[in-house]
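Re: the 97-residue chain
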Amino acid sequence: MKKLYSQMTKAELEQEMKGLREELDRAEFPSQRSVIERKYYTALAYTLDPSDFPPGVYKVEHVQLPFILSYVNGIMAWGTLGEEPDASFPISMLTRL
């Protein structure tokens, strides 16, 4: 049985991300790419320090609207995206503006 990302070491997460990048290269359908990409960003989020993401305005990967981060819970950033008051993304998808 495969470990949860939260139980993996940094080396195991890096190995998982490498495998996911290879899967992305072989993915044939946009829906496949989307699922694999989300797994990649989730694994990557576990290698980051949530305290490095204070409240503020961020750019989200593949999203045009600015994301206003209110708080971080675990690896998930919660805030407002446009008219959506309860949006969340893995912290690995955020870039500070």
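The CA atoms of residues 50 and 80 lie 18 Å apart.
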